[in-house]
Specification:
By secondary structure, this protein is of the alpha/beta class. Helix content is 40%, strand content 19%. The strands form 2 sheets. A 7-stranded parallel barrel has the order 1-2-3-4-5-6-9, surrounded by 5 helices. A two-stranded antiparallel sheet has the order 7-8. The longest helix has 21 residues.
């Protein structure tokens, strides 16, 4: 039997604005990446999301991003490594308060959006993120793009690392994610996405947008909870994994197998 974690970005609503279908998606996942107030979320949303994860037995992770509510943290910012380190520490600390209040042990950290993609290629930013995590809690798991320098930096820093793949995102020949502004960056066909997930988990490969076969490690599959078909998509992916003898477990359990 194979094992894999299913993660989803949750808690991205803000004030009077609701984003995503968190309550409907969470029964289908094993790990939740909770927004920490910089790219999305607010204190009340964070508190409710952690409580909901506890209710469903879903592991909680911090999802720190750039301070960019208007751009949803998807715009590249010109920031120094020391600034990134402090941003990560600040946001982990904010979510940790709600984890403590709810009796939940924080499991992991997954950078969001532009921070995630920039750190996948920029070694100095990657090291800053890892340093920020280590100084707050070196037991936290770093979740990052499979094959990225973020994971390389994490391993060198002594962090437990998990390799992430994406169910609904296209890949470039170098293993990076296709920028969202480009055609075909987001895969909307459910059957295509499910087939890609099975290939990534069972075979350790995925086809790039250019047609190349890329080797990847699928410790965790990211599902996006804000799509129109998010709930049905999550349900179908989990069903397909089960039908292929793949058990869904959280990252902590995944790395212990």
């Amino acid at each position: 039997m194979k094992y894999v974690d299913l993660n989803c970005d949750l808690g991205e609503s803000f004030g009077a604005y609701t984003l995503g279908m968190d309550q409907a998606v969470i029964p289908h996942i094993s790990s939740a990446n909770v927004a920490c107030g910089f790219h999305a979320s607010d204190p009340l949303v964070m508190s409710k999301t952690v409580a909901m994860a506890r209710e469903y037995g879903v592991a909680v992770g911090a999802h720190p991003g750039y301070p960019d509510l208007v751009g949803f943290g998807r715009r590249n910012l010109n920031v120094t490594p020391s600034e990134v380190q402090a941003m990560v520490q600040y946001q982990i600390g904010a979510l940790q308060a709600f984890c403590t209040a709810n009796g939940v042990r924080m499991q992991h950290v997954k950078p969001h959006g532009a921070m995630y993609n920039m750190a996948a290629k920029d070694r100095r930013l990657a090291e800053a993120i890892c340093q920020g995590i280590c100084e707050v809690d070196p037991e936290l798991i770093l979740l990052g793009l499979s094959g990225s320098c973020l994971l390389e930096a994490g391993r060198e820093a002594g962090l437990r690392c998990a390799s992430e793949v994406f169910a609904d995102r296209a890949y470039e020949d170098d293993g990076s994610l296709t920028p969202r502004g480009q055609k075909g960056a987001v895969i909307t066909d459910e059957e295509e996405a499910i087939a890609r997930v099975l290939q990534m988990v069972l075979q350790g490969t995925v086809q790039s947008r250019g047609g190349s076969t890329i080797s990847i490690q699928a410790d965790s599959v990211c599902l996006h909870g804000d799509g129109e078909k998010a709930v049905e998509f999550a349900r179908k992916i989990r069903k397909a994994l089960s039908a292929n003898d793949v058990k869904v477990i959280c990252l902590t359990e995944m790395l212990a197998v």
